[in-house]
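Aim 2 progress update. The chain analyzed this quarter is reproduced below.
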Amino acid sequence: MYLRTALCAASALALTAGAAMAQSTLTIATVNNGDMIRMQGYTGDFTEKTGIAVEWVTLEENVLRSRVTTDITTKGGQFDIMTIGMYETPIWGANGWLVPLDDLSAEYDVDDILPAMAGGLSHEGTLYAAPFYGESSMIMYRTDLMEKAGMEMPDAPTWEFVREAAAAMTDRDADINGICLRGKAGWGEGGAFITAMSNSFGARWFDMDWNAQFDTEAWANTLNFYKGMMDESGPAGYATNGFNENLSLFNQGKCGMWIDATVAASFVTGDDSTVADSVGFALAPDTGLGKRSNWLWAWALAVPAGTQQEAEAKQFIEWATSKDYIELVAENEGWANVPPGARTSLYENPEYQKVPFAQKTLDSILSADPTDSTVEPSPYVGIQFAAIPEFAGIATEVSQEFSAAYAGQQSVEDALAKAQAITNEAMEAAGYR
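Predicted structure tokens:
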């Protein structure tokens, strides 16, 4: 912790000194997760090298998505760089809202970006955002609690095993919940989790004619299983918990299992975790239907069209998503703390191969296929989302209904009926049906 604090202080001083001589200032919107906060601590290195100052607008995930979407669609011009993901990038690139990243330097080595990440951040073969890190999702679990329960985590477990293990690890008197999962409303929060989970239960958002599918047995099975398991073994108030809330619970020793972004592995095994020495990893669960419940995502940096500082913005993107940046973090904080999932060379590095979660992260990423994510055929690309412009609005409303069911404010049946109506009405208005 001392090294990180000292490093951040030194970086802040360098940033202040660099800002005094800076010829320009970039305004960057980003998400308030650990890797992005860590990057801000190193920004002085960029300013010192380039003379370009950086002003950060750091927001909670749902707020970030709302702010950058409003800014890009209204041409507000508040930001020179935006942190966006695989859902927005191809759609916004196709609309001409993003600057193509087709002229990055040879030293940057764009071909080193993992194909799954480059593909998800491109439109018609042109890269429109560079991945700061890439992720899938997997199980993180307490090896000591699993052993105490007399159970052994398989490498590729089923949901039934997970539910059984969660119940066995739950100890309400000791404030230990067997499992922590996202329930928070928002298409990229609880909505992303339940959609990925539903794939493994045989559900899908739409049939091939864009009819909503929430009135199916597969969706009923998904939500009833989730709510039943979380009521049995989850934390109080799970309906409002997202990534950061569950990370905090896990690090405090209050979760037996957590299924979430692979990027969390460095935090649950890091200095801020009280259980760092007893964490194991496994693939996201399935139900035997041929699809696991892991997603595919990248938090990436993009340049909105119309910025007056396009060249400077590209300089920052090259710095933040480069091999050199990975080396910088590794040198100061160790290989376990570098941004994962973005570059092929990272997984070929013998030092990184020693990191206990490195291979499981890569296996999870490689097993996620956005073009074939559902048991029955679907008309959309995407795993935890459907890559159509209307999805974000629809899925935010649907996730609100689901969260209300988790909280006991309505039945699962009512939530699914409302989701069906919301989705079909929106798709008809958009001309899909």
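The chain has a mean pLDDT of 94. The chain is about 45% helix and 15% strand. These observations will guide the mutagenesis experiments scheduled for the next reporting period.
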